[in-house]
Amino acid sequence: MVPTWTEPLAIAASRVVGGPLGKHALVGRSRFWTPLRVVLLLAAAVLALGFLGKANCLQQYSTPDGPQLDWRNDRQYISMCYSDTVPLYGIEGVAAGKVPYRDPWIEGAGTADEKVRYMEYPVLTGFFQYANARIADAWLWLAQRLPLPSALPVVVYFEVTAIWLAMAWLVVVWGVRSLRRTRPWDAALVALSPLVIVHAFTNFDTLAVACAVGGLLAFARRRPVLAGVLFGIGGAFKLFPLFLLLPVLLIALRRREHGRGLRTIAAGVVSFVLINLPVALAWTTGWWEFFRLNQTRPADPDSLYFVVSYFTGWAGFDGPLADGRAPAVLNLVTEGLFVACCLGVAVLTWKAPQTPRIASLAFLVVASFLVVNKVWSPQYSLWLVPLAVLALPRWRLLFAWMVVDALVWVPRMFYYVGASDKGLPPDWFLGAVVARDAMVVLLMVLVVRSVLRPAEDLVRAGSPVDHDADWPEAAPAAVRGGAPA
Questions:
Q1: Full DSSP string of 178-196
Q2: CB 264 within 8 Å of CB 219
Q3: What is the pLDDT of residues 116-138, one digit of tens each?
């Protein structure tokens, strides 16, 4: 089917260029402008807009000590160009050549709150930052000897990082296009997502998303071990790709095809352990910092727990906490809720009239984690973009969610400015958080409905074969010429 015949958003957008495709139009005749190349071009254009959105934070000004990055007067918030990559370059020591997890850095040096800290990201993300810093050093060394463009080290570092992050998102778009052979235009929604403009370069999450989508694609192409390896590598960037092993397990049990599922799970666990084990053994304290930080941090402002606390005056599950004390009860509640959600997904898998698609279960698991977790950093929403498109390809609804989620960035930035400095009070930001969470919960409900009512699943309706592309097996009997299964 053609999107301008079936998708309300595509129909409305097509009116700008003359309306929906005609019934007698000739399509597919161009040898160069294939669907893949078109969506990759769209993705590159959106990524360029995302880079330009961060560019205002790369300006510099002159001082007696030389040029400095211009983040004066809260420029990074007022211009809404903030990116974690910029402060982390200096704070965590990669600029000075400190090896992640081995070499500590001092937080609050010279104050009563001085603490010894280590790289706070998973292993591959930490070394990704270190490698980019060394590439930036090499570029600046060459720029002193060759006629090459140059800038402040942190600017060069950001640009090197942005190149890799952009390439990772192009892999995501390519993966979604490859997973949806009968609906190639769904990848355009991933390419055009407003969340990419806002968050592709906010942190390092596109790397993990690329591994997650790559794992789904490898599994669809009957390479379960490679799929597991990619999930494990993704988990060493950010943990969420490991969550996708649960849908693999559930559907393997439902189909009684345990071999494929177990090979994927084993490969994922082994690859994750092999990546982490050398660092954990050599520099245990530094390696543990990521896990320690996630245990000790309280509910962030982007969590529902903080929202309830702010609007009701509730002191939280743990009450007032001393500095550095872990919110033990909150941790237990969030972990318990996530386990309960996973059990719910397991029951849904078993009770569904047809075996659910992996994409549907993957979206439910990851979305559940974000909704019940005590932290929802803004760039985490990128995790959901390809999964939501694969699970529920309803353009108008998904684009509405992406717009709402992207717009949360505006009150977030002005919340950091502070109402006393002509920013916004917390109410605006926290209200936007509630709206975003409500949209995600709505998507979850609709995905559950599509699992319970397979006839309403647009992907299954489009092709009797393609709906199982994310679980490798033979074509259904009806396609082979026999009786329907």
A1: HH-TT-TTHHHHHHT-HHH
A2: yes
A3: 999 999 999 999 999 999 999 99
